[in-house]
Structure formats: structure tokens, C-alpha cells
Amino acid sequence: MNKIIKCILLDLDGTLLNSGPDLLLALNYVLKKQNLKTINKNIIGSLVGGGAKVMIERAYNFLNEKVPSNKMEILINCFLDFYIENCSNTSHLYPNVESTIEFLKSKFKIALCTNKKQEISEKILEEFNIKRFFDLILGSSYKHKLKPSTEMLEYCLKKLEVEPEQTFMIGDSINDIIPAQKIGIKTIFVNYGYGKLNDSINPSHKVNSFEEILGIPGIKS
Fold first, then answer.
1. pLDDT tens, 123-169?
2. Is 185 helix (H, G, I), strand (E, B) or coil?
3. Using CB atoms within 10 A of its CB, is residue 103 exposed (0-12), middle (13-18) or buried (19+)?
4. What share of the chain is helix, strand, coil (3-state, %, to 5)?
5. Which residues have a catalytic role annotated?
6. pTM of the predicted model, to two decimals?
């Protein structure tokens, strides 16, 4: 099996984009609509990941509230309607993301693999002027189970015609690391994002800034 790296899979929130401020605005918009307390920015990291539904559920749980079973779809749509119009207002790329991806693109196939909605993911990449670097953009849809299922990663490999051993998955969450490890993809955990590792999860590499990726064996020339 050819183990030369040919492909880089990238998460979005907490990896390429500091999206917390705009996600928080959207979440608090929903909570205010329901006459609930708003969420402090200090805990946003514990809410992000898994999509809008999971984020709303975590927020309600933090507030010791129960989501009415007949309201979840309404809450999700309210969140998404607000967020898609305001997803780039206060968010920003992490330092050196654009220049690093540009370099990676010169050597590898590049794919985005995120639990964020497809339409929103594409809009964000376009508005931050990095969409042109991606060979594939895969956000959440009805077609695939979200990470930590392996379905989205497996779809990326198939579409880009690469093997797991030829691929790195870069993310800030165990939802990125666990499914990649299950199917034999090398992993890079970014320490600056929203997620945290536990003692049982050991990624192939850890970095403190996005550009450090360029020094990792297999990526470094």
C-alpha cells in the first residue's frame, strides 16, 4: 500500500475558523425567543460540535431546561435562519490559515469535512476567500451520518480516490479524531480549538497553531 500522503481532510469550526462569536449570537437569539437566559461566551467551547441540534440541546441542558419535544425543529430552523445570515459577522480565520491551506493545496487534495450545514459551510468558505482551495466540501445533510460516524470521512476518501493510509484528518474534536482512527486515517489534533481530548484518545500529532501542520512528517517536504 502506498503510504505517501495525498489528501488532507479538514474540520471547520475550531480548526480553520473561530466561529464561536457568531454561533453564540445565533444560539442566544433562539434562547431569547424562548424567554430563556442567554449563554455566556466563556462556555461556548463546550457547546460547539455536532450541529445545531446538539448545540441547542447542550444549551438547554446547561440552563437546566428541557427542550419541548414538539419544538426542536422550530428551534433548529430559527437558529439556522439567523446564523446563515450572520455566520461571518464576528467570526474569523485562525492565524495563517489561508497561507497554510494555499501551500497544502500545492501538494495535496484538500477536503472540508464538517458537521456544519452544507450551505452554511460553502458560504463561510466563500466569504473568507478560501473556497477555491478545496477539491471537496462536505457539510451535514440527510445523506450522511454526522461525525463521529465514519460515513462522512469514508465518502471523502471515495470521492477523492485516496486510501486512509494516504490521508490526514485535522480537527479540534474527538468527533474528528475517533472516526479517522477507526478507518486508519492519520490524525492531527489542534490544541487551540473548542474540543478537548481525554486520556484514551491519542492522535498521531498535536499542534498549537495551524501553520505547525507544515512541519509534520508526511506533510513536510
1. 999 999 999 999 999 999 888 999 999 999 999 999 999 999 999 99
2. coil
3. middle
4. 45, 15, 40
5. 11
6. 0.92
